[in-house]
Amino acid sequence: MGEASLLLHGEEEEEEEAESSVNRTGHVWTAVAYIITGVIGSGVLSLAWSVAQLGWIAGPFAIVCFAAITLTSAFLLCDCYRTPDPDHGPGRNRSYSEAVAMSLGKNNARAFGLVIQISLCGITIAYTITSAVSKRAIQKSNCYHNEGHEATCEYSDTYYYLIFGAVQIVLSQAPDFHNIQWLSIIAAIMSFTYSFIGFGLGIAQVIENGYVLGSLTGISTSSGIEKMWLVSQALGDIAFAYPYSLILFEIQDTLKSPPSENQTMKNASMISLIITTIFYLLCGGFGYAAFGEDTPGNLLTGFGFYEPYWLIDLANACIMIHLVGGYQLFGQPLFANAERWISDKYPHNGFINNEFSLKLPLIPAFRLNLLRICFRTFYVVFTTAVSMTFPYFNQVIGVMGAIIFWPLTIYFPVEMYFKQRNVEAWTTKWVMFRIFTIVCFLVTMFALVGSIEGLISAKMS
Q: Which segments does the entry list as coiled coil (predicted)?
């Protein structure tokens, strides 16, 4: 679907009309809210487990390295929002796919379109799994409180998946990114809340223990091969915790100017990634310090903590609310890409292009489109079904983190940088970036293979 991005630069009059219809009012703090909503997601819940696999030195070091790479990538991408080509003027690239198409051409745009759609879909699947796990954790927490920590407290999670899917079907009818700013702000507040609760409970557990658990080499295993697979999966989980490049352009397209969008976005990226990395280090570090060898795969649903049960319930409720917004933050770009492609293929089809207004009591009128209703409903049903088939939290996010990280955070940003700055082959800068790209590729492949192995093992067990 990357091919659709080329079609967005058609007639100048149509482009100007589309631009005039968008009211961009965002600033650095709304961008920070969007970024935190998109970056601090279900990945934070696995970081204690990831640090536990890597140990006290490699675990925090890996988190900081992934953060630094993500920020470098973000700075490269921010400058690609405005097209430097004089033939097109300072036109906006309103999505990552448009920027790739304009900078790297049709073939790269097609490859990018496939990768990003798979990535966006994978993240929404992971968010669906996490939301259902959190709903079930609330019920289990109450059961353990009433029946004792040794009680069985096993519940089916099918009902929870269906509830989350139903909510997303309704919210997915919002026409575009600009209509869900309020949801992103609420979701960002929720992410702060459950992150604070997570590392707060970790601190409390460390104080109760009276000492810090864990070791420099991480959790011991029965064999070197098993350790290798767990380390690779941990790297995939950490990579999943930084999916920022996927949504950068859509967020930047909400910003007003002046000041220039790229400068505002760089400031927002710096602020947001510093905040999120601090949270990640606190959650991952204190989680491992509290539980050591028994660190759960999901810090707030793995029941390392049992009490106070009401605080665990609150944290999981915040996760659920956050993931409602997070699903939309990653789902809306996917919807927009697919619907633009379909609309360009069939420009005169009334089912695809006609809109109508619906007014319900007590709420403002809103626009609906038959393609939007059908496609987005089908998509939510699909992601819900896949989530129910593969409900393996750590393994799924490890696979998705590895798939997303290298192409979208490393390869395309570097290639667009080379193109825009006319970096010549075999110069110092060219060699350094090539080494950087190759090293990141090898790490990503290592994480992908290990995460797939973990997913297959979980499905077979």
A: none
Of 360, 334, 267, 353, residue with least CA distance to 124: 334
- How many domains, in total, are found in the chain? 1
- Please count the residues of the chain: 461
Cα(240)–Cα(242) distance, integer angstroms = 5
Contacts for 184 with CB less than 8 Å, ≥ 6 apart: 33, 34, 37, 325, 329
The mean pLDDT value for 88-115 works out to 81
pLDDT above 90 as % of the chain = 20
Q: Is residue 51 a contact partner of residue 288, using CB atoms and an 8 Å limit?
A: yes
Cβ atoms 96, 248 nearer than 8 A: yes
Q: Is-above-0.70 flag for pTM?
A: yes
What would the two tokens of residue 27 be?
Answer: 């600033």
- Residue 430 CA from chain centroid, whole number: 29
Give the Cα separation of 252 and 268 in Å (integer): 10
Cβ 106 vs Cβ 6: under 8 Å: yes
User: CA 49, CA 178: separation in Å to the nearest integer?
Assistant: 36
Residue with tokens 């009309």: 17
Amino acid, single-letter form, for residue 8: L
Specify whether the CB–CB gap between 289 and 206 falls below 8 A.
Answer: yes
CATH number of the domain to which 157 belongs: 1.20.1740.10
Average pLDDT over residues 204-222: 87
Range of the domain at 56: 4-460
CA-based nearest residue to 73, from 411, 432, 434: 411
Say which DSSP state 347 is in: T
Residue whose pair of structure tokens reads 């990579």 in the numeric block: 239
215 class by beta-carbon count within 10 Å (0-12 exposed, 13-18 middle, 19+ buried): middle
Burial of 321 (0-12, 13-18, 19+ CB in 10 A): buried
CB 335 within 8 A of CB 3: no
pLDDT score at 415: 92
List phi, psi (to 5°) of 223.
Answer: -150, 160
In the beta sheet, which residues pair with residue 180? Answer: none
Q: Is the pLDDT of residue 179 over 90?
A: no
> Tokens 């204690």 label which residue?
48
367 secondary structure, DSSP code:
E
Dihedral class, residue 257 (left if φ above 0, else alpha if ψ from -120 to 50, else beta): beta
Confidence (pLDDT) at 410 = 92
Top pLDDT among 349 and 90 is at 349
Q: What is the rounded average pLDDT of the residues 362-374?
A: 75
pLDDT (0 to 100) of residue 13: 39
> Residue 308 has which token pair?
């106070």
